[in-house]
Amino acid sequence: MAIWMTHFHKLGAAAALATAVSVLPGSVSAAEPKEKAAMPGMGGMAKKARTELASSAAFAADGRLLAVAKQGEHLMLYRSDDQGASWSAPVIVNAQPEAISGDGENRPKIAFAQDGGVLVSWTKPLGKPNTGEVRLARSDDGGASFAAPITVHRDRQEITHRFEAITAGGDGRIYIAWIDKRDLESAKAAQKPYRGAAIYAAVSEDGGRSFKAEVKVADHSCECCRITTAVDTDGAPLFLWRHVFEPNERDHALAKLKTDGTPSAFQRATFDRWRIDGCPHHGPSLAVAPDGTRHAVWFNQKDGEGRVFYGRLTANGVDGQRFVGGEKAAHADLAVAGRRVAITWKEFDGETTQLHAEVSDDGGASFKPRVLAATGGASDQARAIKRGNDLFVFWRTEREGMRVFELR
Amino acid sequence: MRHFCLLLLLVLACMKAAAAEPFLALDRQGARSLVDANSHALPTIIALWSSDCSHCKNNLKLFARMAAANPRLRLITIAVEPLSEELAVPLDRLGIPGARYAYGPESPDALAHALDPKWRGELPRTLLFDGNGGKEAVSGVMDEQGVRRHLRL
Predict the structure, then answer these.
(1) Of the residues A1, A194, A391, B26, which has the fewest C-beta atoms closer than 10 A?
(2) Where would I find the H helices in B19-87?
(3) Does residue B26 sit within a domain?
(4) Is residue B58 part of a domain?
(5) pLDDT of the residue at B16
């Protein structure tokens, strides 16, 4: 009890530092989707349903906050007119139930077409392990209802098409990129070696209603780290992902895409030289400031120590690279609003998972740390989001549900 | 005592041949006990894996082969994801012996910390116990020579 009280007070004090609003279980909440029952023949084991917390949130142009989360074989869209203090009854995104990836580095995403269309993307796992299709559903009425989802790629092999990232370019096109193993599978069939997987992209010229045939962005991506995307100052989309540089350095690569989805530029973005034959399960985040500065956070092992880093990606390397948080900092995300930069991450302190943030008001030259919240249960990765010049953190936890913290 | 242990191992090996071990849900206390170096009187490999990790299969196959060749070597697998019946499929297909665990309903962050405070989630992650109180942790795909070195075999 004493321990519980200690953490209750810690949480209370931390929450007071930020303007926090939360949805508690019992109200309209995506906190605990009830899914699979415990397996028969597993006597004495967990009886609790598996909770897949992976979710995303984004502010629409009209200031309304949208959040998407998985519930069984459906994605549910929640809308809030008060920055997450209360949420509408959820809208089902996919009327027909289907398998949906929603844990760890997998999560559904939200993007907005130039005409106001709401786009929700996700990965639909297929029968074989680690296989999937990239799916997308569009709403023409602000998320009140959705058209039937489409599969964005033409390739329908039962292989990896997973970990998609989606953005609307400044030109109104919708760009979506994902990790794709068609080249790995071809190489395997020909008994040839192939490092990692590949990045493919597809472009929509009708606001996400349909996509042109996908094109390859790059060979040799890492296999299961989330991809991140941002829009450059000229409106062209940027994608950043964990790559496998020769022989097995799992640093990051950055590509700028042309209007057909092929890269106009490809560069190595980080230089930590983490050599591992393994799966880091820890993808990066990227945001571009109005002055063109590319702010990024990522995880790497450097000098034998696995840490989260912040830095500004330039043509000549990383500017201002430094640690973010402590030794247990994990899954950082980042957003930029004008000169303001917000970094958020979670960090386990031995008893609870703490939600941290750092905010810069001077374009990333200096940051002020904040502790926003804590939870004793399972939690999703934190998401940094923005509305105009306002920055927020969205965090979904098993016990507390969906919470939004404004970073003033 | 030694003969008894060998007999016990033989019986366990026969049981394993008859049916794969059922999965057990891991809690914080169980995790701490499992990784206590003093609790391992025999060379032991604890292999952390997940269904998403293609590299993990390379390690699991190697460990299974080494365990089959050395009756003193124990293998324990821990799927670092929530318990589900699908988890048995890859282990059965690869013929992976030994006790099988997966995450129970506690916070995954807490379970990961209890297993290995230095671990940052990368997979495969392998904890190697030499049976004399020695313990090492290695991330990534391993080779037999490396496993033997860490186990002092």
Answers:
(1) A1
(2) 28-34, 54-69
(3) yes
(4) yes
(5) 47
DSSP state of A243: B
Residue of A34, A45, A244 to mutate when probing chain B, most B C-beta within 10 A:
A45
Domain span at A230? 62-283
Contacting residues of B for A330, CB less than 8 Å apart? 120-121
Q: How far apart are the C-alpha atoms of A64 and A388, rounded to whole Å?
A: 12
In terms of residue numbers, what domain contains B40? 20-151
Q: A131 and chain B: CB distance < 8 Å anywhere?
A: no
ipTM surpasses 0.95 = no
Note the residue count of chain B.
Answer: 153
Q: What is the CATH number of the domain that holds B84?
A: 3.40.30.10
Tokens of B96: 């992976």
Distance of CA A233 to the CA centre of its chain: 21
Test B122 with A277 for CB contact under 8 angstroms.
no
Of A278, A350, A351, the CB nearest to B141: A278
Give pLDDT, residue A52: 80
Our count of domains for chain A comes to 1
Backbone phi and psi for residue B151, each to the nearest 5 degrees, phi listed first:
-85, -5
pLDDT, position A304: 87
Residues of A in contact with B108 (CB under 8 A): 378
What is the Cα–Cα distance from A219 to A246, expressed in whole angstroms?
A: 12
Write down the pTM of the prediction.
0.89
Greatest alpha-carbon pair distance for chain B in Å reads 41
Question: Is residue B133 domain-resident?
Answer: yes
Q: Say whether residue A281 is in contact with chain B using an 8 A CB cutoff.
A: yes
